[in-house]
From TrEMBL:
It comes from the Bacteria. One of its GO terms (molecular function) is phosphotransferase activity, for other substituted phosphate groups. Keywords: Cell membrane, Magnesium, Membrane, Metal-binding, Transferase, Transmembrane, Transmembrane helix. Its cofactor is Mg(2+). This is UDP-GlcNAc:undecaprenyl-phosphate GlcNAc-1-phosphate transferase. It comes from Oceanotoga teriensis. GO terms for cellular component: plasma membrane. Mg(2+) binds at residues 125, 178.
Length: 301
C-alpha cells in the first residue's frame, strides 16, 4: 500500500504538466534568480496532493489544513498574493494544527510551536531554488520523522515525493511551485508536531535537528537581507545551495546531491540524539557545524 502514491504520482504528473502548459501556469526564466533555461510548468503541489489524498482522507486534521495551504500556494503561483495575507493564512492553519494536537503545553510553548510552524513553511519555500532540491531534502527529513516517531503513515507522502522526483530532478519537467513547497512545509511541521505530542518537549528538539537545514538557511537569509536593507521577502542567490555551487563550481545535480548528504547527516544526528540524553549537545553541534559551513562559504565570495 505505501508504494501506491509513487505510481499514482507517476500517472498523474504527466497530465498535470499538460494542463499547466495549456493554461500557461508556468515559470519563465529571468536570467536572475531562476536557474532553468526553458519555460517549466508549476502545479507540482497539485500533483503531490492528488497522489496522497486517498491515503490521508480519514485524517481530517491533516488533510484539510494541507488542502488550504496548498490552495494558497496555488493562488500565489497563478497570481502573486499579498505576502501578509499569505502569512495570516499560514498562522491560522498552523494554530489550528497546534490546538488540535492537545499537547498540554502552556500558552507560551504553544505560541513557540505556531511560530516554528510558520517559519518552517517559509523555510521550505525558500529552499525550492534548484531542481529536486526541496522535494528531495524534504523526503529525507520525513524519512527520519517516520523512523524516530514510528509513524509509518508518513511513508505515503515519502513515496509520493519519490514519484514526483522522477519529473522534478534535474532537468526538471515540472516545479513544485508555492503550492508544493507550502504543502511539504506543512507536512514536515505536522510530523514535527506528532513527534512532540508522542515524546514530550524533547521531541521538539529532535524535530529542530531534523529540520536544521531549512531553519538555518531561513535564519541567515532573513538576517542577510535585513543587514543589506532589503525586505525579508526579497529573493537572492545567497542561499546555502547557491554558495555550495559557486564555491565548488558544481553542476546543479551535484549541488543538489551534496545538499541531500547534509540533510541526511542532520537526520543521523537526530537519530543518535533520540537514543542519548544529550539533546543540547546534538543541537549545538548541528548549529555550530552548519553555521560554520555557511560563513565559510559566504566568506569565499
Amino acid at each position: 500500500m505505501i508504494f501506491i502514491p509513487f505510481f499514482l504520482n507517476i500517472l498523474i504528473t504527466p497530465f498535470i504538466i499538460k494542463f499547466a502548459l495549456k493554461f500557461s501556469i508556468v515559470d519563465k526564466p529571468d536570467n536572475n534568480l531562476k536557474n532553468h533555461k526553458k519555460i517549466t510548468p508549476y502545479l507540482g503541489g497539485l500533483s503531490l496532493f492528488l497522489s496522497i489524498l486517498p491515503f490521508y482522507f480519514d485524517d481530517l486534521y491533516y488533510i484539510i489544513p494541507a488542502f488550504i495551504i496548498m490552495i494558497i500556494g496555488l493562488f500565489d503561483d497563478i497570481k502573486n498574493i499579498n505576502p501578509f495575507f499569505r502569512l495570516f493564512v499560514e498562522f491560522a492553519v498552523i494554530t489550528f494544527t497546534v490546538v488540535n494536537f492537545h499537547m498540554g503545553f502552556s500558552i507560551i510553548i504553544n505560541i513557540l510551536f505556531i511560530i516554528t510552524g510558520v517559519a518552517l513553511i517559509n523555510a521550505v519555500n525558500m529552499i525550492d531554488g534548484m531542481d529536486g532540491l526541496c522535494s528531495g531534502t524534504a523526503l529525507i527529513s520525513l524519512l527520519f520523522f517516520a523512523i524516530i516517531s514510528k509513524n509509518f503513515d508518513i511513508l505515503y507522502f515519502v513515496f509520493a515525493l519519490l514519484g514526483f522526483l522522477v519529473f522534478n530532478f534535474y532537468p526538471a519537467k515540472i516545479f513544485l511551485g508555492d503550492a508544493g513547497s507550502y504543502l511539504i512545509g506543512f507536512t514536515l511541521f505536522y510530523n514535527f508536531n506528532y513527534l512532540t505530542s508522542k515524546s514530550g518537549f524533547g521531541g521538539y528538539f529532535i524535530g529542530l535537528i531534523i529540520t536544521a537545514y531549512f531553519f538555518t538557511d531561513l535564519f541567515f537569509s532573513i538576517l542577510r537581507r535585513i543587514m543589506n536593507d532589503k525586505s525579508p521577502f526579497y529573493g537572492d542567490k545567497e542561499h546555502i545551495y547557491d554558495k555550495i555551487r559557486s564555491r565548488f563550481n558544481t553542476k546543479i545535480s551535484t549541488t543538489v546531491l551534496i545538499n541531500y548528504i547534509i540533510v541526511f547527516s542532520f537526520g543521523l544526528i537526530s537519530w543518535f540524539s533520540w537514543f542519548k540524553p544529550y539533546l543540547g549537545i546534538g543541537i549545538a553541534f548541528v548549529l555550530f557545524l552548519f553555521t560554520g559551513v555557511y560563513f565559510r562559504l559566504y566568506k569565499y565570495d
